[in-house]
Write a structure and sequence with these properties.
CATH class of the domain at 236-297: Mainly Alpha
Distance between the termini: 52 Å
CATH superfamily of the domain at 236-297: Probable gtpase engc, domain 3
Number of strands: 13
EC number: 3.6.1.-
GO molecular function: GTP binding; GTPase activity; metal ion binding; rRNA binding
Mean pLDDT: 88
Radius of gyration: 21 Å
Structural class: alpha/beta
Largest sheet: 6 strands, mixed
Strand order of the largest sheet: 10-9-8-11-13-12
InterPro entries: G_CP_dom (IPR030378), NA-bd_OB-fold (IPR012340), P-loop_NTPase (IPR027417), Ribosome_biogen_GTPase_RsgA (IPR004881), RsgA_GTPase_dom (IPR010914)
Bound molecules: guanosine-5'-triphosphate, zinc ion
Binding site for Zn(2+): 253, 258, 260, 266
Shape: globular
Low-confidence stretches: 201-205
Domain EngC GTPase: 81-227
Number of helices: 10
Strand content: 25-35%
CATH architecture of the domain at 236-297: Orthogonal Bundle
Length: 299
């Protein structure tokens, strides 16, 4: 038996988990001890090697962030670990879904994950009202990156901001997440090598999520399933906190457990009515609140 090593989980394969050792490539195929919590892409793990290509994961090192996805009922399941940033991708077509955007931002605000906005397809004209709505977000501290994946506009600037961090692209279907990933990882063989090195002994299996090292530095977690992550695990109070401009008002509500809806002397609602908080954002907060599973709305 060899000594314990540490590594990074780079992919979930049908027959095991691909782990990149800190001092070696290609990744090794690992099994996990049954009693371990779910191991996810981005996790740092302790493992022992049974052969140069195979190992067993024995511990998950503490995570600095975890992204959850809703599972059956009110359950949630971790899908990615140790993310630094979520990049919410938007486009003029399909139309900007601001409710989904606010939902992503609220999750990140409560998960120790930074959030940026990417406006893709800037080769297409953007209506003025959408443009104005989008430009409100930088006033809250969210950076907005205008790009075109197809026309290769703004891609090198984007690559620069992705350096030295682990990121994930989120957004509705069709906004161009795959196109952006391809623009940033032009070397297709580099992308597929990771997986084929691991699955060469068996049938090719679809992966739930994969971590890629970007050529300019930084990691990108690509996961079809994570693209639309839900409000899984958030409480109603966390949802309100996820609206950054609400934060200074929340402490001024009369009641500690103010729901910011019809409550007496709610400073958040008052600010929205006075135009200090954009009414559109407050309304979307109310809508998201309605969408939350009942248990997290209680108490
Ligand atoms: N006009 C224009 N179209 C683009 C641009 N980038 C991507 N598209 C197009 O948008 C469509 C959707 O792109 P995808 O990359 O598949 O979008 P996605 O977000 O990965 O979609 P899902 O895989 O369904 O989640 C494709 O037809 C792309 O060619 C762009 O910069 N400009
Ligand atoms: Zn309130």
């Amino acid at each position: 038996m060899s000594a314990q090593r540490e590594g990074l989980v780079v992919a979930h394969l049908g027959k095991g988990i691909a782990v990149e050792l800190d001092d070696a490539t290609p990744p090794v195929l690992c099994q996990t001890l049954r009693k371990l919590d779910t191991v996810v892409v981005g996790d740092r793990v302790k493992l022992t090697l049974s052969s140069p290509e195979q190992g067993r994961i024995e511990a998950i090192l503490p995570r600095r962030s975890t992204l959850f996805r809703p599972a059956r009922g009110n359950e949630s399941r971790p899908v990615a670990a140790n993310l630094d940033s979520v990049y919410v991708v938007l486009a003029v077509e399909p139309a900007c879904d601001f409710l989904l955007l606010d939902q992503y931002l609220a999750v990140c605000e409560n998960s120790n994950i930074d959030a940026d906005l990417i406006l893709n397809k800037i080769d297409l004209p953007l209506p003025a009202d959408i443009d104005a709505e989008l430009h409100y977000y930088p006033t809250l501290g969210y950076r907005l990156h205008p790009v075109s994946a197809n026309r290769q506009i703004g891609i090198s600037e984007l690559a620069h901001t992705l350096q030295n961090r682990a990121s994930l692209f989120a957004g509705q279907s069709g906004v161009g997440k795959s196109s952006l990933t391809n623009a940033l990882l032009p070397d297709k063989t580099l992308r597929t090598n990771t997986i084929s090195a691991i699955s060469k002994h068996g049938r090719h299996t679809t992966t739930a999520a994969t971590l890629y090292h970007l050529p300019g530095g930084g990691d990108l977690i690509d996961s079809p399933g994570v693209a639309i992550f839900g409000l899984a695990g958030l409480t109603e109070a966390q949802l309100a906190w996820g609206y950054r401009e609400f934060q200074p008002y929340i402490a001024r509500c009369r009641f500690n457990d103010c729901k910011h809806v019809t409550d007496k002397d709610c400073a958040v609602r008052a600010a929205a009515e006075a135009g200090e908080i954009p009414l559109a954002r407050y309304r979307r907060f109310l809508k998201l609140r309605e969408k939350m599973p009942p248990p997290s709305r209680g108490g």
